Amino acid sequence: MEYTILNNGVQMPKLGFGVYQIPVDETKEAVLNAIKIGYRLIDTAGAYKNEVQVGQAVNEAIKAGIVKREELFITTKLWVSEYNEQHAEKAINDRLQKMQLDYLDLLLLHQPYGDIYGAWRAMEKSLNAGKLRSIGVSNFDSGKIVEFAKLVSVTPQVNQLEFNPWNQRENDEEWNRKYHVQPEAWAPFAEGRLDLFHNEILQEIGNKYNKTIGQVVLRWLVQRNIVVLAKSVRESRMRENMDIFDFSLSESDMNLIKSLNRNETAFFDHHDPIQVERITGWTL
Ligand SMILES: NC(=O)c1ccc[n+]([C@@H]2O[C@H](COP(=O)([O-])OP(=O)(O)OC[C@H]3O[C@@H](n4cnc5c(N)ncnc54)[C@H](OP(=O)(O)O)[C@@H]3O)[C@@H](O)[C@H]2O)c1
User: Fold this and answer.
1) Where are the domains of the chain?
2) What confidence tens digit (pLDDT) does each residue in 82-123 have?
3) Is 198 assigned a ligand-binding role in the annotation?
4) pLDDT (tens digit per residue) in 162-208
5) Ligand 1 pocket member 230 (CB < 6 A)
6) DSSP letter string, the chain
7) At the fourth CATH level, which superfamily is domain 3-280?
8) Which ligand 1 atom lies nearest to the CA of residue 237?
9) Which of 8, 41, 46, 198 is an S-S bond match for 13, by CB 3.0 to 4.6 Å?
């Protein structure tokens, strides 16, 4: 495993295991498998409804002597309905209780809407109290990061954003780096959209290194020093996705991947008012 150092000195694995869309009754086993295979960063969220099972897997792995707590990097996220200082403070305590953990390695604001400043103050307090080792945001565009970083006391350690070959976001990456915010990639495979796993250019690159398309994509992000989350419920793919630290893509192959950029989301635009209404549940 390779690591990056966050702006507060905390060490974060460059590759993690995401549990979005893993059914609740499969999460514990999937996370346990992932830890056995060598994943150290686990990414969940209140919205994924499987935090309890992540906590169970983590505690079971520690109890079985597979891993020590300090070797793991556990991330979860607060939802918009939990924002404002009072709600967030309660939500953080509830999370620790629910996951049976003494602390979280990273807590993120999942979406950039609502009382993000109130929630952030509660996160800063919990950071100072040792309940959180680092705090960050997700889906904050560059304008929002600039504004947010200026107005809060603790600059976010991480911004988790969609990054994949169709949506490469070099400009967003630069703005985050300018403010010392570590970019982290969600949906690195764009969940297979636009036939990513059959793309000829990615396949040709993979053939050169004897690697799969999935491995090429993950390596491309790690080489950009973007922390990357890969999700799979299959053990063989968990292993495959971990096996990216024994090769490097050449500059010309990195540039070839650049040519795939469509500069648009493979999912939805966080500025689209219909999506804002959908995500927040707010309507007139
Ligand atoms: N902050 C946010 O708003 C946000 C949004 C979305 C996701 N996330 C985080 O990012 C993580 C990853 O994103 P994601 O799960 O949406 O999408 P993804 O990682 O782009 O794609 C996951 C899909 O790819 C398949 N897959 C995985 N490895 C593969 C391989 N080597 N070859 C072929 N297929 C493969 C998986 O299928 P199988 O499981 O069947 O193998 C799954 O269907 C999430 O789990 C979550 O933790 C965060």
Assistant:
1) 3-280
2) 999 999 999 999 999 999 999 999 999 999 999 999 999 999
3) no
4) 999 999 999 999 999 999 999 999 999 999 999 999 999 999 999 99
5) yes
6) --EEE-TTS-EEESEEEE-TT--HHHHHHHHHHHHHHT--EEE--GGGT-HHHHHHHHHHHHHTTS--GGG-EEEEEE-GGG-SHHHHHHHHHHHHHHHT-S-BSEEEE-SS-SSHHHHHHHHHHHHHTTSBS-EEEES--HHHHHHHHHHSSSPPSEEEEE-BTTB--HHHHHHHHHTTPEEEEE-TTGGGGGGGGG-HHHHHHHHHHT--HHHHHHHHHHHTT-EEEE--S-HHHHHHHH--SS----HHHHHHHHTT---S-SS--TT-HHHHHHHH----
7) NADP-dependent oxidoreductase domain (3.20.20.100)
8) 31
9) 41
